[in-house]
Amino acid sequence: MLKVSDIDAALVSPDFVRDPYAVLDVLRERDAVHWSGSLGAWVLTRYHDIVATFNDLGTFSNEGRLARAAAYLPEPRSELAEFEAHYKTKGLLHSDPPDHTRMRRVVAPGFAPRVIDRMRPRIQQIVDRLIDHVESQSHLDVIHDLAFPLPATVLADMMGVSVDKGPVFREWADRLLGFQGVNRPGMTLLSAAQDALIEARAYLAELIELRRRAPGQDLISLMTAEADGGTLTDAEIINTGMTLLTAGHETTTSLIGNGLLTLLQHRDQWNELREDRSLVGSAIEEILRFESPVSRQPRLLKHDTMLSSRVLPKGDMVFQMLGAANRDPRVFADPATFTIHRNPNRHLAFGHGIHFCIGATLARAEGEIVFHSVLERLPQMRLVDQVADWDTAKANSRVLRSLPVSI
Question: Are 255 and 402 found together in one domain?
Fold first, then answer.
């Protein structure tokens, strides 16, 4: 059995990214509030502890959390000045109330349920086109051919830019997500992230200027317009835009890829969904619980606090391990079992509280349309390889590099 003393090395290993659950199970039962020297952060694994930290914004802060990734490096850090400046700037994902409240009020209308409902025909059109392209083949790669191009195209539509920008968004996201999830990343990862920031920020600054001159029906125009909740500064728009460029497609790619992998690994439930499509909604919620797209969320401690009899000092980082919370037996019966009939299913895949994912409704809609379409048009889909190809370069994400299937 894995010992707590072995946990630190395991937490930063590629094997942990491939299959984290045995390690998380040990931590959750034996050291639920664990200091990890390898991560440079506290690791939380119990559902109710993590909910408590989501709710306690005065202690567990979003502001400045990613800027801390470079704080452990010796001075001078002038070569990372733009990296630190960006993550010290407030944006929708990197702020607390009252700034977060103001920014969310401006951005939220772009993700309102009625807006997403109007997008459904366009999402269906994109999915149909992608399946048309591969339907005559015997094999496809779910990630390359479906799970990435769908949300990337939807994001380009929402940003009001050409779909050709999708691969560029992905390349930026890969570099920006590479340093996250470990509080002491190497200089190579930080430099790559800074290079992506410089490119993406310049692109967004130009886009903001274009939308100020000629507004459209897109998210950048929404953020540059006067709103009831006030206006956003250019720095806030750029910071929030960076969040959209990274989180706007990666999590949906994960939902689709992880979902098809898991369903194809549980053939009986795949077949049940083929017979009863009314179960697709509950299947999506179980996919989100069972293989949560975001594996962990960082928070910065604003003052000393106590959690589960452990003293957590001001200035330390905390990682909320969502994949562990979503398999906590205190909340979920038989949590290691995948079942599309699970009810209730109070998973934390989209977070909790005021920072609940603003794009959750969109992600669910994209997932629903994809799964209905694949079950209808590619019902004989099967895994080519039973060993999953997880992307081990992204500690924060539970996402596949590829998913080859036969059809």
Answer: yes
Report the Cα–Cα distance between both ends of the chain, in Å, rounded. 40
The token duo for 85 is 């400046």
Residues recorded for the chain: 407
204 domain residue, yes or no = yes
Beta bridge partners, 35, equal 42
* Domain co-membership, 44 together with 175: no
Per DSSP, the chain holds a count of helices (H) and strands (E) of: 17, 12
CA-nearest of 203, 277, 274, 270 to 241 is: 203
Per-residue exposure over 273-283, b if at least 16 CB sit within 10 Å of its own CB, e if not = beeeeebbebb
Whether residue 125 lies inside any domain: the answer is yes
Residues 89 and 218 in one domain: yes
**Is there a single domain that holds both residue 250 and residue 368?**
yes
pLDDT (tens digit, 9 = 90+) per residue, 133-167?
999 999 999 999 999 999 999 999 999 988 888 88
Structural domain including 55 reads: 1-61+295-339
Q: Tell me the per-residue pLDDT of 216-244, one tens digit each, with 9 for 90 and over.
A: 999 999 999 865 556 789 999 999 988 88
Q: How many CB atoms lie within 10 A of CB 126?
A: 22
CA dist., res. 340 & res. 334, Å (int): 13
CATH number at residue 151: 1.10.630.10
What's the Cα-to-Cα distance from 312 to each of 23, 56, 200, 316, 317, rounded to whole Å?
22, 14, 35, 7, 9
Closest CA to 318 of 333, 330, 332, 307: 307
Distance CA 373, CA 378 (A): 8
Q: Which of 38, 4, 52, 41 has its CA nearest to residue 24?
A: 4
- Residue 326 one-letter amino acid: N
